[in-house]
């Protein structure tokens, strides 16, 4: 009798194991990117602390479905209105079916569109709405620097516009995947010259920049380590610090080297270990010397820095962890500077009559100052002048006091 119970118990355990493997397989196979992807949630089984940190990061929240909790702008009366002219205003309103931007003319509602998708978390938030198989940008965004609603980048402060189409190109840096039904894949040929209206598949959207966007497809990795739990060496996955310097840089630069290059194929096809040369046409001499905007051009600005050119070892992870947001404590980054520019050496800062302790704590504001973007500005309601959008330059250099004090 005891033996029979033991056999039954073993059989039950085996069945549970088989079913769990089947469930893991189903989870991997239902990822809209294909069966080779496991889905980010599968990473938490072995990498809980990293995964939980990533959930709070700007990368993971580069796009998200809109909820009342993740929209930072106010919906309270007197704080929720953008005035275009004496008879036209836009109001941010909560309704039973969601959050809306509602246009009024002479006090009468003429147009209303729901906040469906948000782009951005830290500096600003802009919003999209679905209309059948396309997404469009809402005309008003939220900006942290003014803690208020203002025009979305490039939008008029006098004429409301709900017709700016947001195609797959924008999702390539703000999400991990979305499928165009017309091509049935993200692998369209950008160099063909063909221009067709995209038909986006709403249910294929993988929000944010997730684990597999940077580390590559992980289904085989997850499966192997579930079957071999004692194996501590990562198998069947790209280990980033084992890539070459250029491969590590390109893994970030695919989205952080500007949006002014002619693409050869979709960024969604980029996998760690690829190089930008396979995805973009070469930058011309004129483009190289025209100056790069601080918005989205972190890699090319860094690559133009003497620190980068002389050391030939700097990567993005020298200063940043992609699993966490940038630290507000600038001394954290200054210590990376001090590792080469020691006060005891002949390359330490001598241009400012400040005590060494102050210099050690903040190299950044002088040598990587906040600068106004030429690509992005916005207007507040009732303002006739644009407000600058400031971001920290990644071109490490020596700036005048005026340049360094610009923000």
Structure description:
The protein starts with a helix and ends with a helix. It has helices spanning 2-29, 48-54, 168-174, 211-215, 219-227, 245-256, 285-288, 298-303, 306-311, 330-338, 356-361, 364-367, 401-404; strands at residues 63-65, 81-85, 88-95, 98-105, 108-114, 117-119, 124-131, 134-137, 140-143, 148-151, 164-166, 175-180, 200-207, 370-378, 387-392. With 407 residues, it is α+β, with helices and mostly antiparallel strands. Strand 2 and strand 3 (88-95) form a beta hairpin.
List strands and helices in order, with pairings.
Elements lengths: L1 H28 L18 H7 L8 E3 L15 E5 L2 E8 L2 E8 L2 E7 L2 E3 L4 E8 L2 E4 L2 E4 L4 E4 L12 E3 L1 H7 E6 L19 E8 L3 H5 L3 H9 L17 H12 L28 H4 L9 H6 L2 H6 L18 H9 L17 H6 L2 H4 L2 E9 L8 E6 L8 H4 L3
Antiparallel strand pairs: 1-6, 2-3, 3-4, 4-5, 6-7, 7-8, 7-9, 8-11, 9-10, 12-13, 14-15
- The number of E-state strands comes to 15
Which oligomerization state do the chains in this entry correspond to? Answer: single chain
Helix tally? 13
Q: Biggest sheet: strands, sense, closure? A: 7 strands, antiparallel
Level of helix content?
25-40%
Task: Give me some keywords for this one.
single chain, 407 residues, alpha+beta, 7-stranded antiparallel beta sheet, 15 strands, globular
């Amino acid at each position: 009798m005891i033996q029979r119970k033991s056999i039954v118990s073993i059989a039950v355990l085996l069945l549970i194991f088989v079913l769990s493997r089947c469930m893991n397989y189903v989870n991997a196979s239902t990822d809209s990117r294909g069966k080779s992807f496991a889905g980010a949630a599968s990473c938490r089984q072995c990498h809980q602390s990293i995964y939980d940190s990533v959930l709070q990061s700007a990368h993971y929240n580069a796009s998200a479905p809109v909820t009342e909790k993740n929209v930072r702008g106010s919906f309270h009366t007197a704080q929720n209105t953008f005035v275009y002219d004496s008879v036209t205003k836009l109001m941010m309103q909560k309704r039973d079916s969601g959050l809306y931007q509602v246009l009024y003319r002479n006090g009468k509602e003429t147009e209303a569109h729901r906040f469906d998708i948000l782009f951005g978390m830290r500096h600003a938030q802009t919003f999209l709405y679905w209309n059948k198989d396309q997404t469009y940008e809402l005309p008003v965004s939220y900006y942290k620097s003014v803690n208020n609603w203002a025009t979305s980048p490039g939008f008029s402060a006098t004429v409301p516009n709900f017709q700016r189409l947001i195609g797959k190109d924008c999702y390539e840096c703000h999400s991990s995947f979305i499928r165009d039904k017309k091509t049935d894949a993200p692998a369209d040929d950008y160099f063909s010259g063909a221009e067709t209206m995209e038909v986006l598949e709403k249910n294929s959207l993988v929000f944010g920049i997730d684990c597999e966007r940077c580390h590559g497809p992980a289904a085989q990795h997850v499966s192997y380590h579930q079957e071999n739990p004692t194996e501590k060496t990562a198998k069947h996955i790209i280990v980033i610090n084992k890539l070459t310097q250029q491969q590590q840089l390109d893994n970030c630069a695919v989205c952080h080297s500007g949006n002014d290059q002619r693409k050869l194929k979709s960024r969604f096809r980029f996998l760690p270990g690829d190089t930008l040369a396979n995805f973009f046409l070469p930058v011309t001499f004129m483009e190289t010397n025209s100056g790069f905007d601080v918005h989205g051009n972190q890699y090319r600005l860094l690559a133009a820095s003497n620190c980068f050119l002389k050391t030939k070892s700097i990567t993005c992870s020298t200063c940043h962890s992609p699993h966490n947001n940038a630290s507000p404590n600038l001394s954290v980054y200054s210590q990376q500077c001090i590792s080469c520019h020691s006060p005891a050496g002949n390359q330490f800062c001598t241009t400012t009559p400040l005590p060494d302790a102050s210099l050690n704590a903040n190299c950044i504001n002088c040598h990587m100052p906040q600068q106004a973007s030429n690509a992005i500005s916005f207007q507040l309601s009732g303002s006739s002048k644009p407000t600058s959008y400031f971001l920290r330059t990644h071109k490490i250099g020596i700036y005048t006091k005026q340049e360094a004090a610009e923000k």
